[in-house]
Structure formats: C-alpha cells, structure tokens
Amino acid sequence: MKALVIIPAYNESKSIINVVKEIEKNKQNKEYKLDYIIINDGSTDNTKEICEENNFNVINLVSNLGIGGAVQTGYLYALKHHYDIAIQFDGDGQHDAKYIKDLVIPIINGEANMTIGSRYITDLSSYKSTIVRQIGIKFLSMMLTLLTKVKILDVTSGFRAVNKDIIEIFAYDYPSDYPEPESIVTVIKKGYKVAEIPVKMQERLYGKSSITPLKSIYYMIKVTYAMIMRCLIERK
Questions:
Q1: For the sheet containing 58-60, what is the strand order?
Q2: pLDDT one-digit tens code per residue, 118-145
Q3: Cα three-residue angle 86-64-167, rounded to 5 degrees
Q4: Could you tell me if residue 191 is left (phi over 0), alpha (psi between -120 and 50 degrees) or otherwise beta?
Q5: What is the value of pTM for the model shown?
Q6: Tell me, what DSSP letter sits at residue 113?
Q7: Which residues, at least 6 apart from 54, have a Cβ–Cβ distance to it below 8 Å?
Q8: In a 3-state reduction of DSSP, which class is residue 82?
Q9: Structural Rg of the chain based on CA atoms
Q10: Domains, the chain, ranges and CATH?
C-alpha cells in the first residue's frame, strides 16, 4: 500500500521544516509506504526557498489558490502517482504525525473510506481551539447530522485520510471555499463510510488562522449554506 501525506502550506516558513521532520520520523511501518508532497500555495514569504534548499518534495503554485485548491492539487498528484491512501496534514505544526498510522489503518482494514482526526471524541487532545470556534464547530456538527444522519464532532478538522476511491473524487471535485465540512457531506452522500479517530493536536506556534473571531459568525452562515447546497447537489 502506498500512502501520500498532502501538506498545504501558505507562508509556513517557520514551521515547514519541523513538519517534514516529524513525518519522516513516523514513516517506518510494515503496513504501508509513506511519502509526502508539500503544496506551496503561492507563499509570499520564503517557504519556497526553504523547501528547495532542503530538497523537500514540493509543488510550487504560481498564485494562491486557497486551501481547497492547494489540497485538490495534492489529490491530483496522488491520483496521477497511483497512491492507495492520501492524508491531509496541515503545514502549520498543529497536527501530530504520530497519529497518521491511526488514521490509515482503519482504511487499510476496510473499516472506513475516510477517517477524520478528532479533538472532541476523547480527552486525548487538550487543545480544542478557541471558545468561539468550538461553538461554531458544534453548530456545524449538528448541521451535518441533520443533513446526513451521521454524527461527526470535529467537522473542520484538516487532519484526515481517504482511500483510493475518494482520492479520485477529490482530484476532480474538491470544495474550494469550505472544504472540510463540505467534503464530508460529499463522501457520506455518495455512500462511503466516515470514521472519527481520536488524535492529539496542538496550537500553532507561528502565524495565525485566517478565521478571526469577527469572521466566525459570517463563516458559519456561509459554511451552512455551502453544506446544504452540497447536499442538494449530491442528491442529483
């Protein structure tokens, strides 16, 4: 089995070296072969130079496509190179590479088509995000359950893995604006099984999230609309 870690990175010069080092430290296992690809999403800092100086596996996008476009580029790469599993892994250092295997094994065993690394199904992760974002995540989780009849607690988690079937779907149809919750709707509505796996996450050390508290309410309204529209599209 071949597994690919997709690392979207926008201005992650301070964290990208440690992210790759952690993935390299957790590559050795008997169940699958693990590679990675960094998608440098038109960074304006020296992320590109750092990746090239360290001979990292990287695709440099000429302009910023946003998280959806960057991750879709990774899925296109995974499809082209015939990977069996793809893992999304943020370039900001929040995700712990030790839990990649926990996400991959249920897919190898046929227990799930998609796995989502969750902060909320156990107390394993002490970092849960800000209070405002936690409220928003709970609301989106309720919306997902209402739309799909499936309960997923950490609907905005960017730490996830998918099998070959979903790699192909995401390579050609991956949401651009609110990819995490929308893509879950797509997978469930197409009849695939999604499993939530407990993982440990930490607060990012450098940079800041693009979703500020002032944007959270607007974000929630837009994501809810996008999820509903995605649900209607998948019914056709």
A1: 58-60, 33-40, 2-9, 85-88, 160-163, 114-118, 194-198
A2: 999 988 766 666 777 788 889 999 999 9
A3: 20
A4: left
A5: 0.91
A6: S
A7: 17, 20
A8: coil
A9: 17
A10: 2-235 (3.90.550.10)
